[in-house]
Amino acid sequence: MSYKSFLLICLALLPLTSFVSRAPGGRKWVICENSSLTVNGTTNINTFSCGIPSCDQTDTLSISKGENNIVLSGGMRLNIQSFDCHNAMMTRDLRKTLKEKQFPTLHISFLSLSKLPQLTARPAFITGMVDIEIAGVSKRFEVNYQITEDAQKVIHLGGSRDINFSDFNLIPPRKLGGMIKTRDKLSVGFQLNMKAMD
After folding, report:
1. Does residue 20 carry a pLDDT above 70?
2. Is residue 125 over pLDDT 90?
């Protein structure tokens, strides 16, 4: 094959290789430190909200196209010590319930998305699978997501899921001789702010 023919073939394939580089395979999103997690729950007398306002250890989500979905690899590692319930007693009780001294971190591993939508300022709603590990126990859940991209090219992926203390073999906190009882059910929400790697 002559050099001229080889060059013409390469030029013909250039648009195709450009498309492949933009396809889901091989894409990476870097999780920013200002990603956060919130936990909302109830007791027999009131409601409470606890949060971890920032991600101490950032990670990268690797994205590839699976047979029926988008495969993810990566996650969040959050310090239980960072939980703040805006009430000293509740904060202490939650950290103790989550066995902070024995298991100081909470892990969320991202496994898949139902699809990879076009990233725009208009919210897209999708689902995905995650593994949540608390107090040494890992459980798999389907999560509802909302995803957008802002003018600064920051990708915002918000997820929510109801879980139970009992899913992780934990007993909800109780106070005043059992008069104040925390319900088993919790609503967990997380907000990932990410930048695409070129």
Report:
1. no
2. yes
Is this prediction's pTM over 0.85?
no
CATH homologous superfamily of 24-196 equals: Lipid/polyisoprenoid-binding, YceI-like (2.40.128.110)
Answer yes or no: are the C-beta atoms of 144 and 99 closer than 8 Å. Answer: no
At which residue do the structure tokens 């606890």 appear? 50
